[in-house]
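To the wet lab folks,

You asked to see what we're planning to order before we commit. Fair enough. Below is the target structure as tokens, and below that is the sequence we designed to fit it. If anything looks off to you, flag it before the synthesis order goes out.
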């Protein structure tokens, strides 16, 4: 939830914002990749000020390779 980054980069997705959950000191934004028909949404947690700057209906995100855990 904390390793998702905004903007272009490796492992890039354009996502729809499906829900915003306000916490005492942060915001959890639930995302669904636009090319995914169904599936589990991604949760992205960030500071309230950061989300205020990024807030929109669709966001571009990327997942840094060093933050991924590949399973076989």
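Sequence we intend to order:
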């Amino acid at each position: 939830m904390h390793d998702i980054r905004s903007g272009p980069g490796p492992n890039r997705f354009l996502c729809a914002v499906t829900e915003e959950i306000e916490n005492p000191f942060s915001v959890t934004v639930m995302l669904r990749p636009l090319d995914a028909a169904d599936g589990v949404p991604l949760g992205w947690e960030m500071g309230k000020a950061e989300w205020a700057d990024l807030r929109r209906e669709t966001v571009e995100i990327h997942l840094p390779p060093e933050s991924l855990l590949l399973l076989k």
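Structural context that might help your review: The mean pLDDT is 91. The two ends are 22 Å apart (CA to CA).

Thanks,
Computational group
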